[in-house]
Write a structure and sequence with these properties.
Blueprint lengths: L4 E7 L16 H8 L2 E3 L2 E2 L5 H10 L3 H4 L22 H7 L3 E7 L14 E6 L28 E2 L7 E2 L1 E3 L8 H17 L5 E6 L7 E3 L1 H4 L22 H10 L5 H32 L5 E7 L19 H4 L3 E4 L9 E3 L3 E2 L3 H8 L15 H4 L11 E2 L11 E5 L3 E6 L5 E4 L17 H17 L24
Parallel strand pairs: 1-9, 1-11, 2-13, 3-14, 4-5, 4-9, 8-10
Antiparallel strand pairs: 2-12, 6-7, 11-12, 15-16, 16-17, 17-18
Helix pairs in contact: 4-10, 5-8
Length: 482
């Protein structure tokens, strides 16, 4: 069979469900990939934020080990660079003889670029500045300018300036930066194909990240009147942390229901635009003659609430829509029984060991928490596969200590900044009712906290300080040793 080429198409802030069969958002190229490959229904990010999730993808490590917890390119970063000694999968592939090319969003380190980790750079964005400094004052609008009437699709933020959440761009599809990112990769493909080594090509467009401002074709593609509101839209979150409530009340409650529908229609249009770009990339690969032995991955770094619980963007809260990400894999020479779906929990840390496995690299870096997905590709059921998914989230620009642990039946969220959450996902799949204080769930809560501590201790996480004002998990780490 030989070592496969690897094509990674990673969007930014895309919900898993938009590419699932039956969803009203049109993603024909993702559908085609799933028909010829595998749809992973339970793929999750480690943190609902770009930088830590991308760092986990690149390294196979939890944030507690790679050191990236929030935006590396701002003055509020906890760390701007990876911990000393952290290795990325690209270094292993390069040493194994792969040619590597990178086009798109980076957002992993403030001081390093893809070229420092073995990639040839094509059209790279979200690079860092060694000293980002404090935001310049001229970035903000005078308060008087922000007090005017709110435009349609805008959120008023006095002193910040009104923000347009969705709308129609003046750019044509071919003029967008994401088009340039994808076509830089397409232009590079013939050189990779004609080389004498296997290759890995990373393609990372910026969409469908907010704001949802897209060319007219996509802005008008979906009729807002036909867009249903999310099934948990009516959740006022009275039984959930106050910061969740504040997000909705202060920001998104400015929208009427018609604007919610319009925003979701624009988000779907943005997702379809990403799928069209993916289709162009896929067509170029199919024409290259190397599609048979190329593992293609269609995925994202984290999700987007898109009106779920009345919210947008990502980060705190810890609802499924922010963590559940798309994952579709195609590899004609290597996937057994294509057209399958896999329900087991996989996450962004699984890709580094997968790529090294495929490249024949036996020396997996120390601390890697992910596991190779190759058995799933070969139609096998890996032994002792994880039965729960555990996150590490320390906030975006504000520092919220939050950890979530969930199985297919229940989900527990530890909020160091407020009271915790527990959801019965079998009875309540849309996370409407917080049962953390319901005594009938004490056994479930205890079991999940035990699992959370097991992961935390193994990964040298930073939530284990026993001091009174810090050690607020209902059961301390000693539960892991029972």
């Amino acid at each position: 069979m030989g070592r496969p080429n690897i094509l990674i198409f990673m969007t930014d802030q895309e919900q898993a469900q938009v590419s699932f069969p039956g969803h009203p958002c049109k993603t024909p190229h993702a559908d085609r990939l799933a028909k010829d490959g595998i749809l992973f229904r339970s793929c999750y990010t480690i943190a609902a934020h770009c930088c830590p999730s991308r760092a986990s993808f690149m390294t196979g490590l939890y944030p507690s080990r790679h050191g990236i917890f929030n935006n590396v390119n701002t003055h509020t970063a906890i760390h701007r660079d990876l911990n000393d000694g952290v290795v990325m999968f690209s270094q292993g592939l390069r040493d194994a003889g792969y040619n590597l090319a990178y086009s798109g969003k980076w957002h992993v380190s403030n001081s390093e670029s893809p070229c420092d980790r073995g990639w040839e750079e094509l059209h790279v964005g979200a690079r860092g500045e060694r000293d980002p400094g404090h935001p310049k004052m001229d970035r903000f609008k005078p308060l008087s300018d922000a007090e005017g009437p709110r435009g349609r699709g805008q959120v008023m933020r006095p002193g910040w300036g009104n923000i347009q959440v969705y709308g129609t761009s003046k750019q044509r599809y071919e003029e967008t930066n994401d088009y340039k990112i994808v076509h830089s990769a397409i232009d590079k493909l013939p050189e990779l194909v004609n080389g004498d080594a296997p290759w890995c090509l990373f393609v990372g467009p910026n969409g469908p990240h907010d704001p949802f401002i897209v060319p007219e074709k996509y802005a008008t593609m979906y009729d807002p009147a036909q867009v249903p509101l999310p099934p948990n839209f009516g959740d006022r979150m009275a039984d959930k942390p106050r910061i969740y409530q504040r997000h909705r009340k202060q920001l998104w409650d400015q929208f009427g229901e018609d604007e919610y529908r319009e925003s979701i229609a624009h988000y779907w249009g943005y997702c379809t635009m990403m799928d069209d770009l993916f289709g162009e990339m896929l067509d170029a690969l199919d024409k290259s003659g190397q599609a048979e032995n190329t593992l293609v991955l269609r995925m994202s770094d984290h999700g987007e609430y898109a009106g779920a619980h009345g919210l947008y963007c990502k980060g705190v809260p810890a609802f499924r829509e922010g963590y559940h990400i798309p994952l579709i894999a195609r590899w004609p020479k290597g996937i057994k029984d294509p057209g399958r779906e896999v329900d087991e929990f996989v996450n962004l840390m699984d890709f580094a060991p997968t790529f090294l496995d495929l490249a024949g690299v036996d020396d997996v870096p120390e601390g890697v928490a992910g596991r190779s997905l190759v058995p799933f590709l070969e139609g096998e059921q890996p032994t002792d596969w994880r039965e729960a998914h555990c996150t590490q989230f320390n906030g975006v620009e504000l520092y919220y200590t939050q950890r979530a642990i969930w199985t297919h039946s229940h989900k527990y969220v530890y909020n160091g900044f407020d009271f915790d959450e527990l959801y019965d996902l079998e009875k309540d799949p849309h996370e409407m009712v917080n049962v953390a204080e319901d005594a009938s769930y004490d056994g479930v809560k205890r079991d999940l906290i035990k699992k959370m501590w097991e992961v935390s201790l193994a990964e040298k996480d930073i939530i284990s300080n026993p001091y009174w004002t810090v050690g607020l998990v209902p059961y301390g780490p000693g539960i892991a040793f029972e």
